[in-house]
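Ticket #4471: structure export looks truncated?
Reporter: QA, pipeline team
Priority: medium

Steps to reproduce: submit the single chain below to the structure queue and open the exported record.
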Amino acid sequence: MSIEKIKRIKMIKAKYDWKVADTAISEDFLKIAKKHKLDELTSRVLYQRGVHAEAEIEQFLKPSLENLHDPFLLHDMEKATGRILSAIEQGENILIYGDYDADGMTAASVMKSALDELGAEAQVYLPNRFTDGYGPNLDVYQYYIKNENINLIITVDNGVAGLEAITWAQENGVDVIVTDHHSIPDQLPPAYAIVHPEHPDSQYPFKYLAGVGVAFKVACALLEYAPSEMLDLVAIGTIADMVSLTDENRILVAHGLKVLAQTERAGLQELMKYAGVDFDKITEETVGFQIAPRLNALGRLDDPNPAIELLTGWDEDEAHEIAKMIDQKNSERKEIVEKIHNEALSMLTDEPVQILYHKDWHKGVLGIVAGRLLEAIHKPVIMLAQEDGILRGSARSIENFDIFKALNAHRELFIAFGGHKQAAGMTLSLENVEAVKKAMIDYIVDNHLDMSKKSPLEIADRCHLDDISLSTITNLAKLAPFGMDNPKPRFLIEDYKVIQSRSMGKDNAHLKLKIQEEKQQIDAVYFQHGSEELEFEQAQTKLVATLSSNSWNGNTSLQLMIEDADSVGVELLDIRSKQLPIPKEANIFSQNQLKHGIMEDVLVIEETPGDLAGLSVLKEAVSKAASDDFKMIYFKNKITDSYYLTGSGTREEFARLYKAIYQFPEFDIRYKLKSLADYLKIPHLLLVKMIKIFEELEFVSIDNGLMTVNKTADKREISESTIYQELEKIVKMQELFALAPVKEIYQNLLEK
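Actual output as written to the record:
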């Protein structure tokens, strides 16, 4: 194990504030749930999610397209569709203006598909993240209107914040229809129509459609039926944008995943092949971890427009080439993220907020890196790319620090700024970095924020290992698709033993455990925690995990996916046989003394006590540590004089020594002791102690290195010697520190 890896070893402590549900459910509900073939665990989870009545259970478990809301309940839908149909009838040129993420790509593709079906003359443009920015861009609008003779612009997944560009278009005789789902600004643009589920004048019953969901509702209104063949795109965009997977979104995604599994889109088929998707097991995780990241990678690093041909085109050769290019972009994105992440780790400080910037960082991935750092350090993080004195990038924040509110009051420090409570985007001058940092720290102080407060993690139930099986996973899957507001159920796992702990994956980044409770053994995987194999091997822990399965060589087994972990009691780390550096900032016991460090909740026993007085010092330190809620104790336990290997001297060894020295009136122990040790076959270390015992019992006297036998000494037992008595205790103490499990050492040190 490398030194660099050890430097990152940390205590096992929960990143979140665990909230275990305590829900009592009635026998009547269990009977109803049983009719739907739900086991008790799944029934409890369903009840926790507010599904109580039989009709609600039916609707939740069997989402139906018949329960989609009337699209004309959306604000301006009638006006928008009327204008679009008029444009098609008049042969007007239409521009669909999308966004560079997966939601924007799929929304534009859905809108294009609907207009194509109606025979429209429609082009699609997805703005470039770096040259156009987010939302309506005035230069792009002017180009298309002047050079492409565009008569109507339809925005998808953007628009409500496009005041300047939309005002110009409307003033120049080009209508703009906004279809969007983002936060409504104080001043809406003067668009011809605004279709938005949260519009203040909207009567729409569901407020949380994704951009692609709004586009699909427009398609439904235009086509006068729900085009189910588009639902694969709707599912991708909805899952990718992490909107609430309840109500209408649950219906759209549930059916969309079925369509995706049978998709005839050549581009999607090729992209999923590159992603290694199992077409027989398409779930929301397929989209979230395999499809959406690839689409987003294109928008993060390059021109996003090839995605439209990928998602709507039918040319298999072209689809293959685009899918290959997108997959390569995703690999490139991963490498860039890893490089920036490692560089950022080395730049972290002890300050309560982190503002990191570099001239070589790619601004398209800084939000991803900021999110990873936030997970690791639990502090607000701003990641910025520097270019010609201007910094552009993203921020991510903990739940207890509203980064939008903290910085919105200081807009004068920014060239551009926007966001919400836990995420923001910004552009600022390099010279304002310290002022921004001061504003954030002042916000903490002025609002008396507890920055150690953790975000809550909702846990469905406690589980014993023998309570769960592959059939449990199958039963819980009836509650899918999982996502925002319907998360994959998490369970608290306790009272197990770690049978095996090892790192795995690229650069050994991930951790794999084999845990056992009673006779049941289960594997558990913890991503990005590969460096903690030693801690998990030795510490008593508890886990929060979701249930999963792992198929290998035709066999399928149950597997836990760990989301968080915590140590139980003091974490005891045995490093006696490990060539590992110890944390120098901790409290360190060495040479019978305790040296205090800045890591007040960590104790390192670097050396075993040299005598009983040293043991008393260590016992007092450990006792105080236990009462002060200590977190970790390292047991290095170096032993300078290894009496546990020599023992305290046998009766036969003492007899041999006495017989040997009795033959000499005087013996020079300064120069001849080693020879005597070799002759008697008694370790030199023990021989010195035995001679001191003889001196204490007055069998010999020592003066200036000359040992003289007292032939008139009284007969006494070796056990009468206080030196011998202490030596016996030291031998037992050293045996404990050298050979016993660290839990036994810890318990012994706590005893008075």
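Status: closed, not a bug. The export was complete when the record was re-opened. Leaving a note from the reviewer for reference: The chain has a mean pLDDT of 93.
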